[in-house]
Structure prediction request, 397 residues.
Amino acid sequence: MKTISGTTEKGQGARGKGQEISHKGQGSRVNVCTFLAAIVIACSLQLAPCPSASAERIKDIASFEGVRTNQLIGYGLVAGLNGSGDKGLATMQTIANMLQRMGVTVAPKDIGAKNSAAVMVTATLPPFPKPGMRIDALVSTIGDAKDLVGGTLLLSPLKGPDGTVYALAQGPVSIGGFIGGGGGATTQKNHLTAGKVPEGVTIERDLPFTLGSNGEIKLFLHRPDFATASSVVVKINETLKSTYATTIDSSAIRLRIPSEYREKIVDLITLLDAVEVAVDIAAKVVVNERTGTIVIGERVRIAPVAISHGNLTIEIKTDYKVSQPPPFAPEKAETVVVPQKDVKVKEEKASLIEVSGVTLGEIVKGLNALGVTPRDLISILQALKAAGALRAELEII
Prediction:
Protein backbone atom coordinates (compact mmCIF):
# COMPACT_ATOMS: atom_id res chain seq x y z
CA MET A 1 0.00 0.00 0.00
CA LYS A 2 2.88 2.41 0.69
CA THR A 3 4.34 1.84 -2.78
CA ILE A 4 0.98 2.56 -4.43
CA SER A 5 0.58 5.75 -2.42
CA GLY A 6 4.08 6.98 -3.31
CA THR A 7 3.60 6.28 -6.99
CA THR A 8 0.31 8.16 -7.04
CA GLU A 9 1.85 11.23 -5.44
CA LYS A 10 4.63 11.35 -8.01
CA GLY A 11 2.15 10.88 -10.80
CA GLN A 12 0.10 13.85 -9.58
CA GLY A 13 3.16 16.06 -9.24
CA ALA A 14 4.41 15.33 -12.78
CA ARG A 15 1.17 14.87 -14.65
CA GLY A 16 2.75 15.84 -17.96
CA LYS A 17 5.56 13.29 -17.72
CA GLY A 18 3.78 10.14 -18.57
CA GLN A 19 6.95 8.27 -19.47
CA GLU A 20 8.51 8.82 -16.07
CA ILE A 21 5.36 7.71 -14.29
CA SER A 22 5.15 4.57 -16.42
CA HIS A 23 8.76 3.73 -15.79
CA LYS A 24 8.56 4.17 -12.04
CA GLY A 25 5.27 2.37 -11.86
CA GLN A 26 6.71 -0.88 -13.21
CA GLY A 27 8.22 -1.65 -9.86
CA SER A 28 4.80 -1.71 -8.22
CA ARG A 29 2.75 -3.17 -11.08
CA VAL A 30 2.13 -6.41 -9.21
CA ASN A 31 0.84 -4.59 -6.14
CA VAL A 32 -1.45 -2.40 -8.25
CA CYS A 33 -2.92 -5.39 -10.06
CA THR A 34 -3.47 -7.20 -6.78
CA PHE A 35 -5.16 -4.14 -5.33
CA LEU A 36 -7.45 -3.72 -8.38
CA ALA A 37 -8.31 -7.41 -8.32
CA ALA A 38 -9.30 -7.13 -4.67
CA ILE A 39 -11.54 -4.17 -5.53
CA VAL A 40 -13.20 -6.11 -8.37
CA ILE A 41 -13.85 -9.10 -6.09
CA ALA A 42 -15.28 -6.89 -3.34
CA CYS A 43 -17.57 -5.11 -5.80
CA SER A 44 -18.69 -8.40 -7.30
CA LEU A 45 -19.59 -9.68 -3.84
CA GLN A 46 -21.57 -6.54 -3.08
CA LEU A 47 -23.34 -6.61 -6.43
CA ALA A 48 -24.06 -10.34 -6.29
CA PRO A 49 -27.78 -11.07 -6.21
CA CYS A 50 -29.01 -11.51 -2.67
CA PRO A 51 -31.57 -14.15 -1.74
CA SER A 52 -35.09 -13.16 -2.67
CA ALA A 53 -36.84 -11.06 -0.05
CA SER A 54 -39.87 -13.30 -0.40
CA ALA A 55 -37.97 -16.50 0.41
CA GLU A 56 -39.58 -18.33 3.32
CA ARG A 57 -38.91 -21.54 5.18
CA ILE A 58 -41.16 -24.45 4.35
CA LYS A 59 -42.28 -24.65 7.99
CA ASP A 60 -43.64 -21.09 7.68
CA ILE A 61 -45.68 -21.64 4.52
CA ALA A 62 -46.81 -25.26 4.82
CA SER A 63 -47.54 -28.08 7.23
CA PHE A 64 -47.17 -31.82 6.99
CA GLU A 65 -50.21 -34.07 6.94
CA GLY A 66 -51.52 -34.68 10.45
CA VAL A 67 -49.54 -31.86 12.06
CA ARG A 68 -52.57 -29.82 13.04
CA THR A 69 -54.49 -28.46 15.98
CA ASN A 70 -57.87 -29.65 17.27
CA GLN A 71 -60.62 -27.70 19.01
CA LEU A 72 -62.21 -28.56 22.36
CA ILE A 73 -65.31 -27.13 24.00
CA GLY A 74 -67.09 -27.55 27.30
CA TYR A 75 -69.61 -26.01 29.67
CA GLY A 76 -68.44 -24.68 33.01
CA LEU A 77 -69.20 -22.57 36.05
CA VAL A 78 -67.19 -19.59 37.29
CA ALA A 79 -67.53 -18.95 41.01
CA GLY A 80 -66.21 -16.29 43.37
CA LEU A 81 -67.60 -13.22 41.62
CA ASN A 82 -68.40 -10.08 43.59
CA GLY A 83 -72.14 -9.96 42.97
CA SER A 84 -71.69 -9.63 39.22
CA GLY A 85 -72.89 -13.12 38.23
CA ASP A 86 -76.08 -14.12 36.46
CA LYS A 87 -79.36 -15.49 37.83
CA GLY A 88 -80.38 -17.56 34.84
CA LEU A 89 -82.14 -20.88 35.30
CA ALA A 90 -79.27 -22.71 33.61
CA THR A 91 -76.80 -21.32 36.15
CA MET A 92 -79.00 -22.20 39.12
CA GLN A 93 -79.57 -25.72 37.74
CA THR A 94 -75.82 -26.14 37.26
CA ILE A 95 -75.18 -25.17 40.87
CA ALA A 96 -77.88 -27.56 42.07
CA ASN A 97 -76.42 -30.45 40.03
CA MET A 98 -72.93 -29.76 41.34
CA LEU A 99 -74.11 -29.66 44.95
CA GLN A 100 -76.09 -32.88 44.48
CA ARG A 101 -72.93 -34.72 43.35
CA MET A 102 -71.34 -33.52 46.57
CA GLY A 103 -74.20 -34.85 48.72
CA VAL A 104 -76.15 -31.60 49.11
CA THR A 105 -79.70 -31.62 47.75
CA VAL A 106 -81.20 -28.22 46.97
CA ALA A 107 -83.82 -27.03 44.50
CA PRO A 108 -82.69 -24.63 41.76
CA LYS A 109 -85.44 -22.16 42.70
CA ASP A 110 -84.06 -21.90 46.22
CA ILE A 111 -80.64 -20.75 44.96
CA GLY A 112 -80.27 -16.99 44.73
CA ALA A 113 -76.52 -16.74 44.18
CA LYS A 114 -75.06 -13.70 42.44
CA ASN A 115 -71.47 -14.80 42.68
CA SER A 116 -71.40 -17.40 39.90
CA ALA A 117 -71.79 -17.37 36.12
CA ALA A 118 -72.34 -20.00 33.44
CA VAL A 119 -69.58 -19.98 30.84
CA MET A 120 -68.45 -21.80 27.73
CA VAL A 121 -64.89 -23.09 27.92
CA THR A 122 -62.80 -23.54 24.78
CA ALA A 123 -59.24 -24.73 24.20
CA THR A 124 -56.99 -25.72 21.31
CA LEU A 125 -55.14 -29.02 21.37
CA PRO A 126 -51.64 -28.68 19.89
CA PRO A 127 -50.31 -31.26 17.42
CA PHE A 128 -49.41 -34.58 19.06
CA PRO A 129 -50.78 -33.80 22.56
CA LYS A 130 -49.66 -36.00 25.44
CA PRO A 131 -51.45 -36.68 28.74
CA GLY A 132 -50.27 -34.29 31.42
CA MET A 133 -49.48 -31.39 29.08
CA ARG A 134 -51.03 -28.08 30.11
CA ILE A 135 -52.54 -25.49 27.76
CA ASP A 136 -54.60 -22.31 28.11
CA ALA A 137 -58.39 -22.13 28.23
CA LEU A 138 -60.74 -19.34 27.16
CA VAL A 139 -63.97 -18.73 29.09
CA SER A 140 -66.91 -16.64 27.88
CA THR A 141 -70.17 -15.90 29.67
CA ILE A 142 -73.40 -17.14 28.12
CA GLY A 143 -75.75 -15.45 30.60
CA ASP A 144 -76.19 -11.88 31.79
CA ALA A 145 -73.17 -11.77 34.10
CA LYS A 146 -71.61 -8.31 34.23
CA ASP A 147 -68.01 -9.44 34.56
CA LEU A 148 -65.74 -12.35 35.53
CA VAL A 149 -63.30 -10.33 37.63
CA GLY A 150 -61.86 -12.42 40.47
CA GLY A 151 -63.67 -15.58 39.39
CA THR A 152 -62.43 -19.16 39.41
CA LEU A 153 -63.38 -21.72 36.79
CA LEU A 154 -64.56 -24.93 38.45
CA LEU A 155 -63.57 -28.34 37.08
CA SER A 156 -65.00 -28.61 33.55
CA PRO A 157 -64.57 -31.47 31.06
CA LEU A 158 -63.62 -30.46 27.52
CA LYS A 159 -64.83 -32.59 24.63
CA GLY A 160 -63.92 -32.91 20.98
CA PRO A 161 -66.35 -33.08 18.04
CA ASP A 162 -66.64 -36.84 18.60
CA GLY A 163 -67.99 -36.31 22.14
CA THR A 164 -64.90 -37.76 23.82
CA VAL A 165 -63.42 -35.97 26.83
CA TYR A 166 -59.82 -35.06 26.01
CA ALA A 167 -58.98 -32.55 28.74
CA LEU A 168 -60.09 -31.01 32.05
CA ALA A 169 -60.10 -27.27 32.77
CA GLN A 170 -59.93 -25.48 36.12
CA GLY A 171 -58.25 -22.41 37.58
CA PRO A 172 -58.47 -18.66 38.21
CA VAL A 173 -59.76 -16.50 35.38
CA SER A 174 -57.48 -13.72 34.17
CA ILE A 175 -59.33 -10.76 32.67
CA GLY A 176 -56.61 -8.20 32.16
CA GLY A 177 -58.99 -5.35 32.91
CA PHE A 178 -61.03 -3.67 35.62
CA ILE A 179 -64.23 -1.78 36.33
CA GLY A 180 -64.67 0.89 38.97
CA GLY A 181 -66.91 3.70 40.10
CA GLY A 182 -70.57 3.89 40.89
CA GLY A 183 -73.59 6.15 40.99
CA GLY A 184 -73.68 6.56 37.23
CA ALA A 185 -69.95 7.34 36.94
CA THR A 186 -67.97 4.22 36.10
CA THR A 187 -64.76 3.44 34.24
CA GLN A 188 -63.85 0.20 32.54
CA LYS A 189 -60.80 -1.24 30.81
CA ASN A 190 -60.89 -4.16 28.37
CA HIS A 191 -63.67 -6.70 27.90
CA LEU A 192 -64.75 -8.15 31.24
CA THR A 193 -67.15 -10.95 30.27
CA ALA A 194 -64.46 -13.15 28.69
CA GLY A 195 -61.08 -14.19 30.03
CA LYS A 196 -58.28 -16.72 29.97
CA VAL A 197 -57.23 -19.46 32.36
CA PRO A 198 -53.45 -19.65 31.85
CA GLU A 199 -52.32 -23.29 31.70
CA GLY A 200 -55.65 -24.23 33.24
CA VAL A 201 -56.28 -27.18 30.90
CA THR A 202 -54.72 -30.57 31.60
CA ILE A 203 -54.72 -32.99 28.65
CA GLU A 204 -56.01 -36.41 29.66
CA ARG A 205 -56.08 -38.27 26.33
CA ASP A 206 -53.81 -38.17 23.29
CA LEU A 207 -54.77 -38.43 19.65
CA PRO A 208 -53.30 -41.53 17.99
CA PHE A 209 -51.60 -40.68 14.73
CA THR A 210 -48.68 -42.00 12.68
CA LEU A 211 -46.63 -39.71 10.47
CA GLY A 212 -46.70 -40.99 6.91
CA SER A 213 -48.52 -43.96 5.42
CA ASN A 214 -47.67 -46.37 2.60
CA GLY A 215 -44.18 -44.95 2.40
CA GLU A 216 -45.23 -41.38 1.67
CA ILE A 217 -46.29 -38.20 3.42
CA LYS A 218 -48.19 -35.16 2.17
CA LEU A 219 -47.40 -31.49 2.55
CA PHE A 220 -50.14 -28.83 2.52
CA LEU A 221 -49.52 -25.17 1.70
CA HIS A 222 -51.19 -22.60 3.94
CA ARG A 223 -51.94 -20.42 0.91
CA PRO A 224 -52.59 -22.42 -2.27
CA ASP A 225 -50.52 -21.31 -5.25
CA PHE A 226 -49.28 -23.32 -8.23
CA ALA A 227 -45.99 -21.42 -8.57
CA THR A 228 -45.16 -21.79 -4.89
CA ALA A 229 -46.04 -25.50 -4.95
CA SER A 230 -43.71 -26.05 -7.90
CA SER A 231 -40.91 -24.15 -6.12
CA VAL A 232 -41.33 -26.30 -3.01
CA VAL A 233 -41.09 -29.48 -5.07
CA VAL A 234 -37.90 -28.27 -6.80
CA LYS A 235 -36.24 -27.30 -3.50
CA ILE A 236 -37.18 -30.58 -1.78
CA ASN A 237 -35.81 -32.65 -4.65
CA GLU A 238 -32.61 -30.60 -4.66
CA THR A 239 -32.20 -31.15 -0.92
CA LEU A 240 -32.84 -34.91 -1.13
CA LYS A 241 -30.83 -35.18 -4.39
CA SER A 242 -33.53 -37.19 -6.15
CA THR A 243 -37.11 -36.94 -7.40
CA TYR A 244 -39.03 -37.70 -4.24
CA ALA A 245 -41.59 -34.86 -4.28
CA THR A 246 -44.38 -34.27 -6.80
CA THR A 247 -47.25 -31.77 -6.89
CA ILE A 248 -50.83 -32.95 -6.48
CA ASP A 249 -52.51 -29.57 -6.92
CA SER A 250 -51.96 -25.94 -5.92
CA SER A 251 -52.04 -26.74 -2.21
CA ALA A 252 -50.83 -30.34 -1.83
CA ILE A 253 -47.48 -32.03 -2.43
CA ARG A 254 -46.78 -35.76 -2.25
CA LEU A 255 -43.42 -36.81 -0.80
CA ARG A 256 -42.06 -40.34 -1.05
CA ILE A 257 -40.09 -41.09 2.09
CA PRO A 258 -36.47 -42.00 1.25
CA SER A 259 -35.38 -45.42 2.47
CA GLU A 260 -32.79 -43.94 4.84
CA TYR A 261 -35.54 -41.90 6.56
CA ARG A 262 -38.19 -44.64 6.90
CA GLU A 263 -37.42 -44.99 10.60
CA LYS A 264 -36.47 -41.32 11.05
CA ILE A 265 -39.50 -39.34 9.90
CA VAL A 266 -38.87 -36.59 12.45
CA ASP A 267 -35.35 -36.06 11.09
CA LEU A 268 -36.75 -35.80 7.55
CA ILE A 269 -39.33 -33.21 8.59
CA THR A 270 -36.69 -31.25 10.51
CA LEU A 271 -34.45 -31.21 7.42
CA LEU A 272 -37.20 -30.06 5.06
CA ASP A 273 -38.68 -27.47 7.44
CA ALA A 274 -35.47 -25.42 7.21
CA VAL A 275 -35.44 -25.36 3.38
CA GLU A 276 -36.07 -21.85 2.02
CA VAL A 277 -38.43 -21.43 -0.92
CA ALA A 278 -39.23 -18.38 -3.04
CA VAL A 279 -42.89 -17.61 -2.40
CA ASP A 280 -44.92 -16.12 -5.23
CA ILE A 281 -47.21 -13.45 -3.79
CA ALA A 282 -50.39 -12.50 -5.62
CA ALA A 283 -51.13 -8.84 -6.40
CA LYS A 284 -53.78 -7.86 -3.86
CA VAL A 285 -55.16 -4.79 -2.14
CA VAL A 286 -56.98 -5.44 1.15
CA VAL A 287 -59.42 -2.81 2.40
CA ASN A 288 -61.16 -2.70 5.78
CA GLU A 289 -63.99 -0.18 5.45
CA ARG A 290 -64.88 -0.35 9.15
CA THR A 291 -61.49 0.92 10.33
CA GLY A 292 -60.26 2.66 7.18
CA THR A 293 -57.24 0.36 6.91
CA ILE A 294 -55.62 -0.21 3.52
CA VAL A 295 -52.86 -2.74 2.76
CA ILE A 296 -51.25 -2.72 -0.69
CA GLY A 297 -49.19 -5.71 -1.81
CA GLU A 298 -45.74 -5.46 -3.39
CA ARG A 299 -46.85 -6.72 -6.80
CA VAL A 300 -49.74 -4.27 -7.22
CA ARG A 301 -49.56 -2.17 -10.39
CA ILE A 302 -51.58 0.85 -11.53
CA ALA A 303 -51.93 1.70 -15.22
CA PRO A 304 -51.56 5.40 -16.15
CA VAL A 305 -54.81 7.11 -15.21
CA ALA A 306 -56.00 10.61 -14.24
CA ILE A 307 -57.88 10.99 -10.96
CA SER A 308 -59.95 13.90 -9.71
CA HIS A 309 -61.43 13.57 -6.25
CA GLY A 310 -63.22 16.35 -4.36
CA ASN A 311 -65.02 16.48 -1.04
CA LEU A 312 -68.59 17.66 -0.68
CA THR A 313 -69.58 18.93 2.77
CA ILE A 314 -73.19 19.71 3.70
CA GLU A 315 -73.73 21.42 7.06
CA ILE A 316 -77.23 21.77 8.47
CA LYS A 317 -77.52 23.84 11.62
CA THR A 318 -80.77 24.30 13.53
CA ASP A 319 -81.09 27.16 16.02
CA TYR A 320 -84.13 27.30 18.28
CA LYS A 321 -85.37 30.76 19.27
CA VAL A 322 -88.15 31.56 21.69
CA SER A 323 -90.95 33.89 20.57
CA GLN A 324 -92.83 35.45 23.45
CA PRO A 325 -96.04 37.51 23.17
CA PRO A 326 -95.71 41.24 23.92
CA PRO A 327 -97.09 42.76 27.13
CA PHE A 328 -100.89 43.02 27.41
CA ALA A 329 -101.28 40.45 24.65
CA PRO A 330 -104.57 38.49 24.37
CA GLU A 331 -104.97 35.47 26.60
CA LYS A 332 -104.71 33.11 23.61
CA ALA A 333 -101.21 34.29 22.88
CA GLU A 334 -98.59 31.63 23.65
CA THR A 335 -94.85 31.39 23.93
CA VAL A 336 -93.58 29.27 21.04
CA VAL A 337 -90.20 27.90 19.95
CA VAL A 338 -89.34 28.84 16.39
CA PRO A 339 -86.64 26.66 14.73
CA GLN A 340 -84.36 28.44 12.31
CA LYS A 341 -82.32 26.30 9.94
CA ASP A 342 -79.09 27.29 8.27
CA VAL A 343 -77.91 25.07 5.41
CA LYS A 344 -74.38 25.42 4.01
CA VAL A 345 -72.93 23.45 1.13
CA LYS A 346 -69.17 23.44 0.56
CA GLU A 347 -67.47 21.65 -2.29
CA GLU A 348 -63.71 21.60 -2.48
CA LYS A 349 -62.01 22.30 -5.78
CA ALA A 350 -60.22 19.33 -7.26
CA SER A 351 -57.85 18.99 -10.21
CA LEU A 352 -56.86 16.02 -12.31
CA ILE A 353 -53.74 14.24 -11.10
CA GLU A 354 -51.97 11.56 -13.11
CA VAL A 355 -51.34 8.42 -11.08
CA SER A 356 -49.41 5.37 -12.26
CA GLY A 357 -46.84 3.01 -10.83
CA VAL A 358 -44.96 -0.18 -11.54
CA THR A 359 -43.40 -0.36 -8.07
CA LEU A 360 -44.90 -0.07 -4.62
CA GLY A 361 -42.98 3.14 -3.95
CA GLU A 362 -44.35 4.83 -7.08
CA ILE A 363 -47.89 3.80 -6.21
CA VAL A 364 -47.61 5.14 -2.65
CA LYS A 365 -46.08 8.39 -3.91
CA GLY A 366 -48.81 8.86 -6.50
CA LEU A 367 -51.67 8.15 -4.11
CA ASN A 368 -50.17 10.41 -1.45
CA ALA A 369 -50.09 13.22 -4.00
CA LEU A 370 -53.88 13.19 -3.99
CA GLY A 371 -53.84 14.33 -0.34
CA VAL A 372 -56.97 12.42 0.63
CA THR A 373 -58.03 10.59 3.78
CA PRO A 374 -57.91 6.78 4.01
CA ARG A 375 -61.67 6.54 3.55
CA ASP A 376 -61.48 8.68 0.41
CA LEU A 377 -58.64 6.48 -0.78
CA ILE A 378 -60.88 3.43 -0.42
CA SER A 379 -63.36 5.01 -2.84
CA ILE A 380 -60.54 5.85 -5.24
CA LEU A 381 -59.24 2.27 -5.19
CA GLN A 382 -62.72 0.94 -5.91
CA ALA A 383 -63.05 3.35 -8.82
CA LEU A 384 -59.61 2.32 -10.14
CA LYS A 385 -60.67 -1.32 -10.02
CA ALA A 386 -63.91 -0.53 -11.87
CA ALA A 387 -61.96 1.38 -14.53
CA GLY A 388 -59.55 -1.52 -15.02
CA ALA A 389 -56.52 0.54 -14.02
CA LEU A 390 -55.83 -1.34 -10.79
CA ARG A 391 -53.92 -4.48 -11.77
CA ALA A 392 -54.63 -6.38 -8.59
CA GLU A 393 -57.34 -8.17 -6.67
CA LEU A 394 -59.33 -5.81 -4.45
CA GLU A 395 -60.51 -7.59 -1.31
CA ILE A 396 -62.87 -5.78 1.04
CA ILE A 397 -63.16 -7.20 4.55
Residues 1-53 have pLDDT under 50 and may be disordered. The radius of gyration is 36 Å. DSSP finds nine helices and 22 strands in the chain. The longest strand covers residues 312-323.
